[in-house]
């Protein structure tokens, strides 16, 4: 089985990119600083230029899309919080009172809240993007979480949301999520797609105690045993979530429109892992914002050969870590644009 969608992402290893890479590197190296002294900001500037296909990339507008979804596996008692927190937090996002709202305001980022698959009827509520594919997934401990049609619908809707962000003028798209029990889905994806043992891939999520962690591991072991080796789409169907598939679709759609993708924590990274396996070129568009305190995130980042920008011990989700990395992307574009070159400033370059 495979997704019916085809993602059209420009790979970045073409000869045209080699020429642009050299131009960007020369611009970076010509700035008034010791060679390489802006460290990872230099990598960011280079990546942004390659993504936008220009030596003078811009980072003016960014949006965070928070995808919310519920999980059948929550009924196995794998989270420290009850399922209704998902829809209650959606209301909190819409009221502007959640962490992601506050942090996004502080860095000048727009928040879009999406019902990807919450097990609650919101009615026609203002401000919410109504993209509910189903009222939560099925319990992946006993059956596939999603049908292929549901997974395809979530991917397609995510892609469309990313395209809309591009049309609205964004250069950068951050993806975040809300979904009680979705660390279970992310751990199962990590286990199935990267072969990471469940003992390593499973953490405390919202904060289960030792007994809760043991129970969660037992549930995930049972769930994983239902299937053998899986491709990315089948793994999403079997163990993913509607919000995870929607984030994956949005990441792929963002790359199609040459947006830089800011990846949040453990669950968002599992969406990127699935997206990467569906279309490897998406990896070049991704910036890993932070290393989550969730056990398993280190292994996930390693599987993607990713080095996150920040390490703040966050384990909240919602896109909070991704939002905090937006000023760094802006700083990268700003130094490339505004710093004087050695020639312009009359500063001597490196000694021969
Ligand atoms: O982003 C992270 O790294 C992260 C780590 C742990 C928990 N979360 C959030 O907590 C919820 C999932 O935790 P749980 O225990 O219900 O599986 C979900 O709403 C996530 O946004 C998020
Ligand atoms: C309160 C609360 C807020 C969240 N935000 C993301 N995941 C969350 C989980 C809980 C429990």
UniProtKB/TrEMBL annotation:
<dbReference type="GO" id="GO:0009236">
    <property type="term" value="P:cobalamin biosynthetic process"/>
</dbReference>
<keyword id="KW-0808">Transferase</keyword>
<dbReference type="InterPro" id="IPR023195">
    <property type="entry name" value="Nict_dMeBzImd_PRibTrfase_N"/>
</dbReference>
<dbReference type="InterPro" id="IPR017846">
    <property type="entry name" value="Nict_dMeBzImd_PRibTrfase_bact"/>
</dbReference>
<dbReference type="InterPro" id="IPR003200">
    <property type="entry name" value="Nict_dMeBzImd_PRibTrfase"/>
</dbReference>
<dbReference type="Pfam" id="PF02277">
    <property type="entry name" value="DBI_PRT"/>
</dbReference>
<comment type="function">
    <text>Catalyzes the synthesis of alpha-ribazole-5'-phosphate from nicotinate mononucleotide (NAMN) and 5,6-dimethylbenzimidazole (DMB).</text>
</comment>
<protein>
    <recommendedName>
        <fullName>Nicotinate-nucleotide--dimethylbenzimidazole phosphoribosyltransferase</fullName>
        <ecNumber>2.4.2.21</ecNumber>
    </recommendedName>
</protein>
<dbReference type="GO" id="GO:0008939">
    <property type="term" value="F:nicotinate-nucleotide-dimethylbenzimidazole phosphoribosyltransferase activity"/>
</dbReference>
<feature type="active site" description="Proton acceptor">
    <location>
        <position position="318"/>
    </location>
</feature>
<keyword id="KW-0328">Glycosyltransferase</keyword>
<dbReference type="InterPro" id="IPR036087">
    <property type="entry name" value="Nict_dMeBzImd_PRibTrfase_sf"/>
</dbReference>
<keyword id="KW-0169">Cobalamin biosynthesis</keyword>
<comment type="pathway">
    <text>Nucleoside biosynthesis; alpha-ribazole biosynthesis; alpha-ribazole from 5,6-dimethylbenzimidazole: step 1/2.</text>
</comment>
<comment type="similarity">
    <text>Belongs to the CobT family.</text>
</comment>
